[in-house]
Amino acid sequence: MGLTVTPLDAADLPTLDAAYRIAEAARAVDEPDLPPTCRRRFEALLRHPMPGIDGRWLVARLDGEPVGWLRLHLHTLENTENASAELVVDPIHRRRGIGRALHEHGVRLLREHGGKRLVGSTAAALPGAEGPVFPGAAFAAAVGAKPANADVRRRLDVTALDRPRLAALLADARAAATGYRTVHWRDHTPDEYVADTAHLEGRLLLDAPMGELAWEQQKMDAQRKRGVERALDARGVRRYNTGAVHEASGRLVGWSQLSLEASSTEHAWQQITIVDPGHRGHRLGLLCKVANLAYALGHEPALRTVDTWNAAANDHMIAINEQLGFRPVAGSVDWQLTI
Ligand SMILES: CC(C)(COP(=O)(O)OP(=O)(O)OC[C@H]1O[C@@H](n2cnc3c(N)ncnc32)[C@H](O)[C@@H]1OP(=O)(O)O)[C@@H](O)C(=O)NCCC(=O)NCCS
User: Fold this and answer.
1) Where along the chain do its domains lie?
2) Which residues lie below 8 Å from residue 244, measured CB to CB, with a gap of 6+?
3) Which of 49, 138, 274, 279 minimizes the number of CB atoms within 10 Å of its CB?
4) CB atoms < 10 A from the CB of 265, how many?
5) Residue to mutate (ligand 1; options 95, 98, 133; most atoms within 8 A of CB)
6) Whose CA is nearest to atom 4 of ligand 1?
7) Is the pLDDT of residue 214 over 90?
8) For residue 228, what are the CA distances in angstroms to 2, 223, 224, 244?
9) How much distance in Å is there from the Cα of 121 to the middle of ligand 1?
């Protein structure tokens, strides 16, 4: 029978389970310090894609048994010539051409949709550090992709938090932020702030360095933002948010979000933190992030670890994270292949 590559049928639960087990086996080998892959999120990516994502999953089988998969996200609202790719081969079946076969099917599928670029991330050593060969990086280079952006994952050990120092940082930030007040919310943005958070999220890429990636900013509006929230609800993601409201105008001009996956009480992701350019220089970024961490900790007593990603070149955000106690633990590279 040999090697076959076919689309994943969403009704085929045994194959979805096998794909999940492959993801988890790969995570344990490739990024063992990350928490286990959340099963609910994994399935929701298939059944409840984000607005603007047309997800295509391909499964590779060896003699009928699933051994790897490729998830292609075609973008329908912006970046319509780009596809984001996640490619995983079961660690016990690597170096047998399965990755390459999935990749070639993906390139064909993208061509049929008029796409021009594939973008994917691989684990890497920290910038400047010597590391082992990372299979994903070796593979990406072998298929002709170019490294386009370097990211660093930083980790906060909550058990070693310097709480007095954080309280002092928060007090300093509040003193610098006269004329602004903080507001907190959980999963769903209050109606009065949904347009402001959509505006902030939509302009994020103008500020976050993207290296050589050919990537447009998202066309985010209140309606799409609600769609994002529904997709996150389907994944069971718990979100903690803190915003900074400019008291004179009532506008929400700063925002930070931290989230936990359905499968985890110990691990969180520090997500977006952004301040509107017209309101920078008042320590609102630090204020939102520190206040939000305190807010989340108040509801998540088991939380031990927070991870966050930043472009290696994002000096300003990195400085804030270092002040909070985040320290570099891993690198990643975004690869771009023009097909
Ligand atoms: C990357 C990955 C999908 C490759 O799957 P695979 O089935 O082993 O890949 P292939 O056998 O088709 O390898 C194709 C070529 O990539 C290169 N390559 C792949 N793994 C490599 C490794 N560990 N060391 C060096 N080169 C490697 C080789 O040039 C290889 O050709 P060769 O075996 O003829 O020398 C797999 O290692 C994996 O799942 N990694 C973790 C997830 C990941 O990083 N995915 C992102 C990929 S963009």
Assistant:
1) 3-115, 155-331
2) 177, 180, 181, 182, 252, 253, 254, 255, 275, 279, 284, 287, 288
3) 138
4) 13
5) 95
6) 99
7) no
8) 40, 9, 6, 21
9) 13
pLDDT over 90 at 314, yes or no = no
Whether residue 75 is predicted with pLDDT greater than 80 in this model: the reply is yes
CATH 3.40.630.30 fits 3-115, yes or no: yes
pLDDT on residue 168? 95
Q: Collect all residues with Cβ–Cβ distance below 8 Å to 230 and sequence separation of at least 6.
A: 48
Residue 305 has a pLDDT of 98
Distance (angstroms) between ligand 1 centre and the Cα of 25 equals 15
With a pLDDT cut of 70, the percent of the chain lying above it is: 100
Q: Give the list of residues 6+ apart from residue 137 with CB closer than 8 angstroms, or none.
A: 122, 123, 124, 333, 335
Whole-number Å distance, alpha carbon 331 to ligand 1 midpoint, is: 18
Question: Would 3-115 and 155-331 be classified into the same CATH topology?
Answer: yes
The amino acid sitting at 316 is H
pLDDT at 125 over 80: yes
Q: What is the mean pLDDT of the chain?
A: 95
CATH T-level fold of 155-331: Aminopeptidase (3.40.630)
Q: Residue 313: how many CB atoms within 10 A of its CB?
A: 15
pLDDT digits (tens, 9 = 90+) for 12-36: 999 999 999 999 999 999 999 999 9
For helices 163-176 and 315-324, give the axis angle rounded to 10 degrees. 130
